[in-house]
Amino acid sequence: MKDWTFIVILSIVAMATPLAPILIGRLIGPRKGNELKNATYECGVETRGDTWVQFKVQYYIFALVFLVFDVEVVFLYPWAVAYNRLPLFGVLAGVVFVITLAEALIYTIRKDALRWI
Amino acid sequence: MSLTPLHAIFALMSLFTVGGAVGVVLNRNLIYAAMYLVLSLFGIAGLFILLEAPFLAAVQILVYVGAISVLITITVMVTRCVFCKEPPPRQLTLVAVMAALVMVTLGFVIMTRFGGLTPAADVPADSIEQLGVAFVNPQAYLVPFEVASILLLGALIGAIFIARDDLPRDEEAVGGDDHA
Predict the structure, then answer these.
(1) Would you say the pTM of this structure is higher than 0.80?
(2) Does any CB of chain B come closer than 8 Å to the CB of residue A113?
(3) CB-CB: which of A63, A78, A94 is closest to B55?
(4) Which fold is adopted by the domain B5-121?
(5) Where are the domains of chain B?
């Protein structure tokens, strides 16, 4: 439980740090807007069309690929923690696991599913 | 029973979990509902930590807060009507009563039929390490561990096979014009 105390303190500091400037700005900043100040972009290209549009379904593949390799990380995490206690066979078993999922990565790349659209 | 900081943390994490879940149900904007879901899942991770299950907490953060929320956000993004004004929820009272009924029933069954809430045995400090050793031990979970990788491989190939048809291709020549 001792270690978690530090994580709790870190989370509180991490949440407070970005919130503080926003709140301080709200409190002491002057609020005199004009057309230029209220514009979404002060410089650069104005956006066209609606922000809330339907995205192409192909983006879903990126999420699925991410999910698969995220679950791989979950399995490898205890394996990596126990690495120093593992026999050679155990290390090789983990390597087989990684190689199997490397096939998944190769398949994804070969099927051109990682190209940004 | 005296109040300890643990009670305060439990209350805060329960607030995150239940409050986030209520936010998901009541919010009419799908993206905001997804964000509330992240808060709720994060609260569950905190509850796992309080239950001294650090591996489950890590899984909760990595998979649910990390990946499932991304998956759900993208699911919302590809829906046809992201920012449509949904009609306000109907039958809210009925749903709330049903949910409360399920909770009371489950709580009753757990408290009476399964011997109630008993403190678990002490969790060893190196529980994650022991799990890692057991994963690659042939006498323990080696086969499920390797099958899991094949399952993930199959899931990925299946997902790409289903979604691939709409991808723009220039290398592969496939018969038929299935570009809608």
Answers:
(1) no
(2) yes
(3) A78
(4) Four Helix Bundle (Hemerythrin (Met), subunit A) (1.20.120)
(5) 5-121, 124-169
